[in-house]
Specification:
By secondary structure, the protein is an alpha+beta fold. The protein is built from two helices and 15 strands.
Length: 250
């Protein structure tokens, strides 16, 4: 049977999108975080049921990957204000979706467009934080998984679309610590498979100027430290003793 050139070209056009991104990498599986180890993906960072984001004690970012091609990311960063150093901004971002390893070694991260969340704190210009949806496609030109020469821990080096390196991340959990990998907040107007933001392959301060869907502003929660019961017991003993001395002296 002779296959026509036209038929081959048509088949190539159909298969072309699938030849670029069809694989995952088992080396990536797990939860990775920057040196502070205070920003970790999962329920400790974002609560999708109650729409709350938990502020970590230190800035940083975290990525998690699964064997079947899902990812999750969490960012907490401070943005300096050179024109007014006393008015820095803080930003918290979370999103998840699917990732693929492309044939050229790059990574494509496509979020579930309806699920991402962003919280911007700008106390000098707004009394309340600005809480919005967040949807940002990411392309990493290259990556490396290796053993850190100093600590001996597994290290992930990611390189942005332009080749610039991100801060290295270190393996924190394996299997990964993540929220469920399906769409958490489905809507009738957005696809659960996620959408790609054309022309935005890099986070930048300019990207923060548009907030199309303002949401509940009371979403920032600080994690409470556990109560030290021994401390309060000894304080109680001390107050009791002090009361007894006062009674007999007066």
């Amino acid at each position: 049977m002779i296959v026509s050139l036209k038929s081959l070209l048509a088949l190539g056009a159909v298969l072309a999108p699938f030849t670029l991104a069809q694989t995952t990498d088992a080396q990536l599986t797990g939860t990775w975080t920057t040196k502070s180890r205070k920003v970790i993906t999962g329920p400790g960072f974002y609560d999708p049921v109650n729409e709350k984001m938990f502020e970590p004690p230190l800035t940083g970012f975290s990525y998690s990957f699964t064997d079947d091609g899902h990812y999750e990311e969490a960012y907490y960063r401070a943005i300096s204000n050179p024109s007014n150093p006393g008015c820095p901004q803080g930003i918290i971002q979370w999103q998840h979706g699917r990732y693929t390893k492309n044939t050229n070694g790059s990574l494509s991260l496509t979020p579930f467009g309806v699920d991402g969340r962003q919280l911007l704190s700008d106390p000098c210009n707004h009394d309340n934080s600005i809480y919005t949806r967040y949807n940002q496609f990411e392309l990493f030109k290259d990556y490396q998984v290796e053993q850190d020469a100093y600590s001996g821990a597994q290290r992930l080096n990611l390189y942005a679309f332009d080749g610039s390196p991100l801060n290295p991340m270190y393996l924190a959990f394996k299997p990964p610590q993540m929220l469920p990998t399906q769409t958490l907040n489905p809507t009738s107007t957005a696809s659960a498979a996620g959408t790609t933001s054309t022309g935005k392959t890099k986070r930048s301060q300019e990207d923060l100027g548009i907030f199309p869907e303002p949401m509940n502003k009371n979403v920032l929660t600080k994690r409470k430290e556990p109560v030290n019961t021994d401390k309060w017991w000894w304080i109680g003993v001390g107050m009791t003793a002090l009361g007894g001395v006062t009674y007999y002296c007066f």
